[in-house]
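Technical annex, item 7. During the second reporting period the consortium partners agreed on a shared format for inverse folding records so that results from different sites could be compared directly. Each record opens with the tokenized structure and is followed by the designed sequence. A conforming record, contributed by the partner at site C, is shown below for reference.
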């Protein structure tokens, strides 16, 4: 293997390179900032310490780190990797762990909404804060273990597949990639779609039932109706999050299965990666659009009112 030659840099106008740097840098900073607001909001305000919000918190942590992954992608724009073979493996490792954990969070969110809508009487018993925290930890641990198993050869000798100085190449055999896509894409997406189809059907039937009985409900019954509406709204919001994730994630998985050197151009691969990363920036915007409590939290955080004593007990719902 000859490593005396330098990596080949793509030829593009300076203006295009500067524009790409600016756009990716902006998306990176925006992704980190918006998800940091979600993390602070759910962590700080006690009213938001619910099982569902714990899942949203973990998803926001994943999306927050995606903002930093974009910084690595920015370094790789001109086709050369300048920070060493070990950091190359670390970059791909972080990318895999964050991607896998994000998929796991989407599955857990779907299960949470399924139980809340389809079996509301047992929701508080089956879905507890402690159980959700255990599931979240297991999700991250499993992602780390899968990364170690799939890229063990690359971990033993970083840079062994590089053909020139400045390359960042990670190799996995085809059956490993197929198994990875099945475990981290096909099966999870199937579970998510099946659960949300069931949630959608039940939510529609509940909405019809609420409209037909809205006139005759008692005060106690109206509270139950409000609670049901809240659960349906949460399911709809998180359904949008899941739907956007699937749209952004499908091309990414297709690229991971394809032979990138022969089937796809470098620009196409870069676009697919950026589309997937941009999904992490969209999630907080979806929360801001559908959740009034998140908009209120942003105001309290930006105006530094959370620094006041007892601010964690603020009524934001």
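Designed sequence (site C submission):
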């Amino acid at each position: 293997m000859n490593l005396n030659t330098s990596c080949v840099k793509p030829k593009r106008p300076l203006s295009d390179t500067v524009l790409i740097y600016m756009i990716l840098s902006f998306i990176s900073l925006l992704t980190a900032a918006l998800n940091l607001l979600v993390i602070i909001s759910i962590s700080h305000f006690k009213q938001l310490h619910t099982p569902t919000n714990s899942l949203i918190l973990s998803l926001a942590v994943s999306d927050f780190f995606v903002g930093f992954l974009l910084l690595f992608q920015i370094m790789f724009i001109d086709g050369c990797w300048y920070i060493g073979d070990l950091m190359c493996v670390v970059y791909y490792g972080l990318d895999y762990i964050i991607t896998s954990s994000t998929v796991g969070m989407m599955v857990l969110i779907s299960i949470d909404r399924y139980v809340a809508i389809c079996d509301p009487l047992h929701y508080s018993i089956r879905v507890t804060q402690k159980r959700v925290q255990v599931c979240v930890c297991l999700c991250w641990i499993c992602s780390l273990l899968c990364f170690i198993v799939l890229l063990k050869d690359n971990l033993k000798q970083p840079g062994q597949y590089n053909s020139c100085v400045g390359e960042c190449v990670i190799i996995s055999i085809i059956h490993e990639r197929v198994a990875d896509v099945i475990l981290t894409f096909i099966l999870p997406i199937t579970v998510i779609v099946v659960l949300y189809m069931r949630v959608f059907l039940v939510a529609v039937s509940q909405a019809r039932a609420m409209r037909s009985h809205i006139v005759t409900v008692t005060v106690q019954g109206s509270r139950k109706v409000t609670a049901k509406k809240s659960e349906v709204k949460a399911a709809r919001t998180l359904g949008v999050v899941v739907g956007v994730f699937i749209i952004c994630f499908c091309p990414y998985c297709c690229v991971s299965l394809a032979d990138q050197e022969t089937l796809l151009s470098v620009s196409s691969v870069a676009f697919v990666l950026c589309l997937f990363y941009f999904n992490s920036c969209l999630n907080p915007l979806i929360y801001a659009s559908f959740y009034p409590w998140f908009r209120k939290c942003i105001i309290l955080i930006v105006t530094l009112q959370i620094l006041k004593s007892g601010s964690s007990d603020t009524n934001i719902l």
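The chain has one domain: 14-313. Residues 14-313 form a domain with the Rhopdopsin 7-helix transmembrane proteins fold (CATH 1.20.1070.10). All partners now use this format for quarterly exchanges.
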